[in-house]
Write a structure and sequence with these properties.
With 257 residues, the protein is an alpha+beta fold. It contains 7 helices and 15 strands. The protein has a 6-stranded antiparallel sheet with strand order 10-15-14-13-11-12. The protein has a 4-stranded antiparallel sheet with strand order 5-6-4-9, covered by helices on one side. Keywords: RNA-binding.
């Protein structure tokens, strides 16, 4: 089903030779589609979710005359040419200094309007509201009808990608003794699991490295790679930082909090 939908978009791209985008995908779906994106990289196929560190992303097909080959270049292009972006951003304000709304509050209220999950991308929550990525075709409807999250009234407007406010994430530096930077060791240490539980999470498809499903527990992490355990959080592996007297490796991670 996923591949069929992506191939339909690609055929439309071939007919029109203009920017064409799919809906948004979660990490597991992106992993399924990764080979499709690699196969069509020559046709300008890129995963993109609105900003460089986006988790929910769609596939965008780009004419080669644009000369775009990376997510960063694509983000820059859409900032300079917002009318070309197939995704829209809802700038949501609560009118309160801190309404206490969480990601789940915004998502739940969108789903209650009948919006399908694949039509929404990342939801960037702040004290005063949120910025929410959606497919462009549903943005006008939401600007008129997305008026409440829980009991909190919302003021919603559609903004161009140039007005996106991505703040630096809150990170906690962790220095951990591990036998080696194998994936199962890292998952166990960062998320306080037994190594067996970490291996089970990997086998169940719950662990992702750089937004792609990681299937091998003996995969060795490289510095700068992003590690995600679905339902538990994410971290950046910074690299080794020394060795203990007993021969264990000290590794540093920045965990998102």
């Amino acid at each position: 089903m996923l591949l069929n939908m992506a191939e339909d978009k690609y055929r439309r791209f071939e007919r029109e030779y203009a920017i064409v985008a799919t809906d948004f995908y979660d990490l597991a779906q992106q992993s399924v589609l990764a080979s499709f994106v690699r196969e069509h990289a020559g046709e300008g196929a890129l995963f993109f979710g609105g900003f460089e560190d986006a988790e929910r992303r769609g596939i965008i097909f780009l004419p080669d005359y644009l000369g775009i080959g990376s997510q960063r270049e694509l983000a820059d292009f859409f900032r300079d040419n917002p009318q070309e972006c197939p995704y829209a951003i809802l700038d949501v304000k609560t009118g309160q200094k801190d309404a206490g709304l969480k990601h789940s509050d915004y998502l739940g209220s969108l789903l209650a309007l009948g919006i399908k999950r694949e039509k929404t991308g990342d939801i960037l929550v702040s004290h005063s509201g949120a910025q929410i990525f959606v497919t462009k075709e549903i943005a006008p409807y939401l600007a008129e009808n997305y008026t409440k999250a829980g009991r909190v009234s919302l003021n919603v407007r559609v903004i161009p990608i140039s007005e996106l406010m991505v703040t630096s994430p809150d990170l906690k530096r962790m220095r951990i003794a591990i036998a080696s930077p194998r994936l199962d060791n890292a998952v166990a240490a960062v998320f306080s699991l037994s190594r067996r539980s970490a291996a089970e999470a990997i086998s169940r498809g719950l662990v992702f490295v750089n937004n792609m499903e990681a299937k091998k527990p003996d995969l060795y992490l490289k510095g700068g790679e992003k590690l995600v355990l679905r339902g538990r959080g994410k971290a950046i592996y910074l690299g080794d930082c020394g060795t203990s007297r007993k021969g264990k490796t000290y590794a540093e991670f920045d965990r998102y909090i």
